Amino acid sequence: ISKMSKPISYYGIQSFKIKPAILSGENVGSLPDFEDMTDGYEFTAIADASVSINQTEASKNEIFIENARTAYMTLDGTPGSKSIVLSSYDHSPEAQKYLFGSTIETDAKGNTVVKETPNYKLGNQAIEIVTLAQNGHPSRRICYANVEASVIESGTIGRGGLSSYQVTFTIVSNYDKNGQVIGNKEETLLEK
After folding, report:
1. Paired sense of beta strands 181-182 and 174-175, if any
2. 59: Cβ–Cβ under 8 A, 6 or more apart, which residues?
3. Does residue 142 have a pLDDT over 90?
């Protein structure tokens, strides 16, 4: 059986990186350089089996009239959506700085102090997910050039559990420098 005839799916997370989406300039809509992470963030301590892909279908509104058993007409409703969600236990100062715009200071005793930034909103991001290879199947590099990101903290503080950051990346339209809608997703089989 050839490699391409075997079922190939996603398995495990090797790395998950985010960087600001390129929303202006000559390279608008393209992927940033994920090798240079000076202006990005790589998630660590990702909760086991927490990365999920969620997609909803576009809705339809059926219009019915009296004395008819079938729809008179069908109208388009809300468009569908697709999101990728992950949970990370990493509460490092670097994570808080990137995700929440926090500032990092050192107090008089030499302790690290992380201060929140009121009304901070994480801007649109580009994401790169690299999966693990499994049973002869190659890992995959899955990238989106433009996603809306939202972050919340939830969980337990105490010996019975950990709090985590729940990060939702909602895939949005991607545009080129001429304002034309272009593809947003790029997927590469990493066979070497």
Report:
1. antiparallel
2. 77, 78, 80
3. yes
Q: Where are the beta strands (DSSP E) in 59-124?
A: 60-63, 73-76, 81-88, 103-106, 112-115
CB contact at 8 A, 52 and 84: yes
Q: What DSSP element (H or E) covers 93?
A: helix 93-100
Q: How far apart are CA 105 and CA 119, in angstroms?
A: 19
Q: Are 115 and 102 in contact (CB under 8 A)?
A: yes
**Helix (H, G, I), strand (E, B), or coil: what is residue 163?**
strand
Q: What is the largest CA-CA distance in the chain?
A: 80
- Contact residues for 28 (Cβ-Cβ < 8 A; gap 6+): 22, 175, 176, 177
Contacts for 127 with CB less than 8 Å, ≥ 6 apart: 16, 17, 18, 84, 143, 144, 147, 169
Output the pLDDT for position 6.
52
Query: 94 in helix, strand or coil?
Result: helix
Give the list of residues 6+ apart from residue 188 with CB closer than 8 angstroms, or none.
Answer: 140, 141
145 CB burial (10 A radius; 0-12, 13-18, 19+): buried
Contact 182, 27 (CB under 8 A): no
| pLDDT tens, residue by residue, 40-58 | 999 999 998 889 888 888 8
State both tokens at 70. 């079938």
